[in-house]
Amino acid sequence: MKIALSHYQFETIHPFLDGNDIEHWLKFFLVGIAETAADGRLTFENIIALRQRSEQSIMALGKRAKVGQELLKHLYSQPIMNAKQMSERLGITYASASTLAKNFEEIGIFKEITGFKRNRLFLFAEYLDLFSSRARRRETGTVRKLR
Fold it and tell me: By the 8 A CB rule, do 71 and 90 touch?
């Protein structure tokens, strides 16, 4: 009885009419897994390349390079920050954090997104763009390495 009930429930949710339908679904599923894995790998490679470029740019900050490298590490988990958050995470003054944010803008790591003089938010735009590019590639079906 339990076997018959299980079979009935399986047939109720089972979208396939015959064995060939299952084969087509499995192929579809496996192609999806392969494409997702390839896309994830490409995004990862692009993150590594971005990190290397960013670290090189930060080295030009001279004495601020060390704290700049520390800020960069934080940006991968929180790509939008204000000066107060930078100050707290890095253990530096608000003024130093504001100067560092300005330096990051000058070397192209940050984009200020509010347009305000106070309460400004800074975006690690190129990092976030990697993920929106990934979504666009999925929509168009194209996969290419960035930079």
Answer: yes
Instruction: Please tell me the total count of domains within the chain.
Output: 1
Question: What angle in degrees, to the nearest 10, is found between the helix axes of 94-106 and 83-90?
Answer: 110
What is the average per-residue pLDDT within 119-136?
Answer: 86
Distance CA 107, CA 61 (A): 9
Q: Residue 147 falls within a domain, yes or no?
A: no
Range of the domain at 73: 2-140
Distance CA 13, CA 7 (A): 10
Residue with the bigger pLDDT between 93 and 131: it is 93
Query: What is the DSSP secondary-structure string of 21-89?
Result: HHHHHHHHHHHHHHHHHHHHHHHHHHHHHHHHHHHHHHHTTGGGHHHHHHHHHHHTT--EE-HHHHHHH
Dist. CA 91–CA 23, nearest whole Å: 58
pLDDT bracket for residue 17 (50, 70, 90): low
Q: Which helix (H) or strand (E) is 96 found in, with range?
A: helix 94-106
Q: What pLDDT score does 25 carry? A: 72
Residue 91 lies in a domain: yes
